[in-house]
Amino acid sequence: MTRPKHLTSYIGPKARLSGTLRFRGTFQVHGTVEGRVESEGLLEVGPAGLVRAEADVGEVICRGRLEGTITARKRLSLLAGSTVEGALNTPWLALQDGVTLRGRVVMERPGGFVRPVSLKWSRRARAVGRLAPIAAAAALLLLAGGWALSRSRPAMVSSTPPPGLLAAAEEAVSRKDYGRAWRLYDTAFQSQPRSERVVLGLANVAFVQGRQSDAISYYERVLELSPEHIAVR
After folding, report:
1. How far is Cα 228 from Cα 44, in angstroms, rounded to an integer?
2. Distance (Å, rounded) from C-alpha 112 to C-alpha 231?
3. Residues 186-206: pLDDT tens digits?
């Protein structure tokens, strides 16, 4: 794994750590961690890494093995080759092909239960993290302009969500009733998870509510549906 600039801790392939682990920023695991993990930061598990613990962290990116009860308060990404045994609790779960998952998964946020999405870990997807400020600015412009771009672009699926539902969601946005807008978009998402208009609506509402992690996740999904979407890129 590439070592990011904000890396604060690192455990090598032959190292073993037992007990309670607390850290800030990012902790990369290429060896074995057993016990309990507590942090608001990012836990990264490398291909040879093993975390056998009760973990409560901000975010998890796993390429190795997780065992136990894992709570990721922002996002949990399971990349190709990773293996999970136990219980997962997170508002957002991203899965690549080639993941082995045995256990229980609970995905819930204030707007209700959500579904996991397929994660395409490409150069384009990695670039989203570096372009997050640009995506956020684009989202603000879309909100200020009534989301004209999302209304004018055709949906990326053969069937579209009920037009009345989306009209009600967009009307709620115009009234700045973002809680209602989120519920309406989320309802539409349950039946049409591949509708660009719905996913972009969720992203914009999450952004204006200050939930940056959710907003970026939905912007990534928009790029999966429409890789050349200029405003989101």
Report:
1. 30
2. 28
3. 888 887 788 888 888 898 888
